[in-house]
Amino acid sequence: MSSFVDLLNSPRETRPNIKFEQPGEQADSQHVLARVAFEKNGFAPELHKGVPTVGVPMTTETEPGFHEVFAASGPVVAGREGGLVYAVDGRHLFCSIQVTERDVYRDAARIAYDSAFELATRLGYPNILRMWNLVGGIIDDNADGVEIYRDFCAGRSEAFALWSGRILHIPAATGIGTRGNGVYLYFISGRADAEVHHLENPRQTPAYHYPESYGPKAPSFARATFADGILYISGTASIIGDETVHKGNISGQVDVTLENITTLISTENLGKVRAEGGYTLRDLDLIKVYVSRPEDIPFVRSRCEEVFSPDARVVYLNVDICRPDLLVEIEAIVQ
Ligand code: 3EB
């Protein structure tokens, strides 16, 4: 078992490598930082053969499911503390925690984030690169009659405020529904000296400036994060400014979503922080396409197949999106 000090002193690849695997594939598990199993039933984060593993309830019984695998650049130190399960490889931290189903999420979401941020800063990985917030019943009401997404956002926002200046900036994220209950959080973060840029989209109001009509505390995420040559594109939907456009119209929503991503990754926008300029939709990989109405999946799939590379890995997930009027949301990585 390597010590934390060995990890920091060994030269290694700085880029995390992410891939989608079929369940059963699991070829090279010796250098895995973590594994997220997309399947019918979720399970709490655990160490499985020493590897942080969390099951997220995102697929139906008729789908095969898949694993999102975060490859490590070398030896890993993994552990668990309370509900947190984590691993570090000297460059990156992966951390996951579950908030079990409850009447009101605000305090539990704040506490979950607070404990994760405490771990991240203590281990020396305060630069959050990418977060995923998978929220069961996202557009349902909590016991107080507040939409669970808004309830969750309030606690998350309080945690970011508590850690302002110590957790280095608000990263790219996804906030999305699941087919189960409770909230599953996971993220990757980097060391304090990592070169990390968080990007906004000129077509969209920064989410952390959304008006109060969308909830008492605004969502805490950036539109993209560019770090170590990798671009993490947040969940992106048919929102212009702060408003949902093309309500009820899947074709219009897919077009605006793709236009939003195109602008976000353009040379004009990404070129501000990436010397080589921007990207196009053909460069996207590890794409998750969230579709709220199952009957829209064939249409969305055919549009996506037109615009994405035939080599891109793309998954389609039928889950609720954080506003009832959003029909589609797309996230991706360029690595
Ligand atoms: C939006 O643009 C759509 O709450 O973490 C996208 C990405 C969305 C992340 C989050 C929410 C989140 O507002 C929803």
Automatic annotation (TrEMBL):
Signal peptide range in chain numbering: none
UniProt-annotated binding residues for substrate: 149, 156, 210, 223
Gene3D superfamilies named in the record: RutC-like (3.30.1330.40)
CDD domains, sorted: YjgF_YER057c_UK114_like_5 (cd06153)
Disordered: annotated span: 1-26
Ranges of residues in domain Chorismatase FkbO/Hyg5-like N-terminal: 68-188
Annotated catalytic residues: 329 (proton acceptor)
Full protein name: Reactive intermediate/imine deaminase
